[in-house]
Specification:
Blueprint: H1 26-32, H2 57-63, E1 66-73, E2 79-85, H3 118-134, E3 142-146, E4 157-167, E5 170-180, E6 185-190, E7 193-197, H4 198-208, E8 212-217, E9 222-226, E10 233-239, E11 244-251, E12 257-261
Antiparallel strand pairs: 1-2, 3-4, 4-5, 5-6, 7-9, 8-10, 10-11, 11-12
Length: 263
């Protein structure tokens, strides 16, 4: 029996074939992200700035403090304050080289063919989300499993199911909603958490921090990080003046990290 091909973008001519749902493009995935028990819309998160954030007010005060000292009398006897700069703080730490570009996106493997089972095409797209967020592609160490099979989602109707993508020992749970019509099929995904590697977190914290000399993060090896939360992860930055500042990291649906220092 023929059925509607799976398309992520409406309005485009559909191919009729016995395979399952027509695979969606990356753009279809992006618009499909919505908050689920804490998840966020993909368009809700701003792109992270390529520039390092401005230092906190306390930083500026510590680096170039100014104070009023004494008074002098002008010819009309009106007191006028004079500004005397304090000594410049001594640099005690060696600065780290700061990257000028965001963490490099990993090169994705070739996607399945149009004739491949549609559920395979869906899980491939979910894997690319995991790899982009983690910052690395490990095909042999990545597996996937869905709660429905290819034959379960052929008939016209609405479907809700889950797909798990496991990278090493870290499992990402995706909630899938699919609507199968006679002429088109739409599907969306949500995920509360996505994986991030330690090296990616340290790299981005170093890039966005103020004059860092040492950076450590609370992500070890590979861990799940809550999507859309400003306190999704924390990195501690010691600057060249030996002052430590906590930077809070927000994981965006695209896998990008945006850090801001504590006030």
């Amino acid at each position: 029996m023929r059925r509607a091909s799976f398309r992520a973008h409406p309005g485009r001519p559909l191919l009729r074939r016995p395979a399952g749902l027509l695979g969606v493009g990356l753009a279809g995935l992006a618009i499909g992200l919505t908050a689920a028990c804490g998840g966020v819309e993909p368009s809700a998160g701003p792109e992270p700035s390529l520039h390092s954030p401005e230092p906190a007010a306390s930083h500026r005060g510590d680096i170039s403090p100014r104070r009023l000292t004494g008074n002098t009398d002008t010819p009309d006897s009106t007191p006028t304050p004079t500004r005397t700069p304090s000594p410049t703080p001594t640099i005690t730490m060696t600065p780290l080289p700061q990257p000028s570009k965001t963490y490099p996106a990993p090169e994705m493997p070739k996607e399945p063919k149009e004739t491949d089972p549609e559920l395979d095409r869906i899980t491939y797209r979910l894997k690319t989300i995991v790899w982009a967020s983690a910052g690395e592609v490990e095909e042999k160490r990545t597996t996937s499993k869905c709660s429905k099979s290819e034959n379960d989602i052929i008939r016209v109707g609405s479907y809700k199911f889950t797909c798990d993508v496991k990278l090493d020992d870290v499992r990402t749970r995706f909630d899938i909603s699919a609507t199968v019509k006679e002429s088109e099929v739409k599907w969306t995904w949500t995920a509360d958490e996505l994986p991030v590697t330690e090296k990616k977190a340290v790299y981005e914290a170093t890039r966005q921090a103020f004059r860092p000399a040492r950076v450590t993060c609370d992500v070890v090896d590979l861990e799940l990080v809550k999507v859309g939360a400003q306190t999704g992860l924390t990195c501690w930055v010691t600057d060249i003046y030996n002052k430590q500042v906590s930077y809070r990291g927000k994981l965006l649906p695209t896998g990008a990290l945006a850090f801001s220092p504590d006030a």
